[in-house]
C-alpha cells in the first residue's frame, strides 16, 4: 500500500514539474515527444487542415454565393446592413445559420486537434474515429455560452495565437491594414491599441486552461474561466515565455532552412542544372513549411494542455507511453504515401512557377498621384512629376462641391492639408481652388477635376478616378459626372472606381462602355454586381476571390501595396493591378520578378508567401 501511494505521489509530482517547468525545459521535452511521434502528429494536423481548406471552406463559399443569388443580394458590406435587414430578412437569417455552422466547425477543428493530440500523448488508446466521436459529443454537449466564449477568446488572442494556430474559417476576422495604419498615425489611438494588445495577451494567458476544461472535462464556460484564473495565478510569465520560446525557435528554424535553400540556389544558378535544383529546393521548401506548420500547431496545443488540471495525474506519463510499433509504422506509411501522391502535383506546379507562368504582371497605379511623397497628394504638380515614371494609371479622388462641381480632394475636411477646419461640401469650386495645401514639404493649389483631367490627357497619363461621396452630393451625381467628363474619359481610356454601390451601379447601367470598379475594404464574400473590377484592400484578399473574379471576367486591383513582400504575394495570387504609394519600388520588384529573374529570386518570392498563416488558410 505504501509503495503504491509513493508511486502515485511520484507521478503527481512528476506531472506538476512538467506543468511548472521552465520554458526551455518544457520545449525540450515537448520537442522530444513530438519527434518521437511525428507521424501521428503530422497526419492529425495535415488531414484536419485538408478537410477544412479543401472541403469545408469551398462548401461555405458556395452556400453563401447561392444564398446571395437566391435572395438577389449583390454584395454584403457595412454600407448595406440596414437595407438587408429591411428588404432581405431571409438573407440575414441564412447568413446567421451559415455563421453558426462556421463557428461549430471552428470549434470542431480546435477540439479535434486538442483531443487528438491528447490521445497521441496518452499512447493512442483511441482510434481517430473514437476521437472524432468524442469531439462530436463535446459539440453536442456544449452550451451557447461555450461557443460565444470560444469565439471571443480567439478574437482576443488572434494578434498572437495566429502565428502558431490559425484556420481559414477565421482568416477574415482581421483588422484591415489601412485601419491599423490610421490608428498608429494617431498617438492617442496608438496608445489605446497598445493597451489592447497588452490586455489581450494577459487575458489570453490567464484563460489558457479554459478550452481544455470545456472540451475535455466538459466544464461550463463560467466554471472553466474561474478554474483557469485560479490555476494561472502566479504563472503568467511561465506560459508567456513558453509561447515566446516556441515562436523564436520556429522563426529561427524557418530562417535557417530558407536561408540555406536560397544560398544553395544562388550557387546552383551558375550551373547547368539550375532548373532541376530549383524544382527540388522549391519542393523541399513546401514540404518543410507544411511540417513546421504541423509542429508549431502541436507545440502550441501542448502549451495549452500544460495548463490543464494539475490535479489529474494521468497526463504526467505522457512521455513514458510508447505508441505500438504497428501503429507507428502504419501512420508513417500513410503520411509518406500521402506526401508522395501530393509531390507529383507540387513538382508540376513548381515547374510552371519557375518558368514564370504562375505569377501575374499587374498594372501599377500611383495612389493619389504621388510616389514616395514626391509632392502633395491629388495635385497637378505631383501628378505631372509622377507621370514621368510611367505608371499605368494615376489614382486620384474627386468630390462634389457646394455648387455641384467636382474638385480633386481625398479628405472631406481641409484641416489635415490646409489647416482649415472647413468641409469640402460647404465650399464652392472657386473657393476651394484658391486654397493652398501642404504635404511632404511641398505646396500646391487644390485643382478642379476639369483641369486635372486635361493636364493628365496632355501628358498621356491615364487616370483611375475615385468618386467620393459627401454632404453636397446630388441624386443625379452620376449623370452630372458623365455629362461633364464621360466623352474624355472614354476617349482616353480612363477608369473609375467608387465605394458607393449606387454610383457604380448607375454608371454601369446607363453607360455600359465605362470601366467602373467597385471598392471593397473587406473580403467577406464575392459580390454579384455590374462592376468591371473590384478594388480590394489587401489584408483579406486571397486567391479564391481572384479566381472567382477571373471566372466572371472581372479585374482585381489591390490597395495599398507599398512593400516588396506584399507585392510578391499579390503577384503570386494573381492580381491585375496594384495601387501603391511607392511606385518606383513596386515597378522595380515587378521587373525583377518577370524579366528573366534568377531561380534564387523566384525562391525568395515564394518564401514570402509560405508563412505559417497562409499555409493553413
Automatic annotation (TrEMBL):
Domain GP-PDE, chain residue ranges per copy: 362-590
Transmembrane segments: 41-70, 90-115, 136-160, 188-215, 236-261, 273-305, 333-354
Keywords per UniProt: Membrane, Transmembrane, Transmembrane helix
Domain of life: Bacteria
InterPro entries (UniProt xref): GlyceroP-diester-Pdiesterase_M, GP_PDE_dom, PLC-like_Pdiesterase_TIM-brl
SUPFAM superfamilies noted in UniProt: PLC-like phosphodiesterases
Protein name, entry field: Glycerophosphoryl diester phosphodiesterase membrane domain-containing protein
The species this protein was found in: Levilactobacillus fuyuanensis
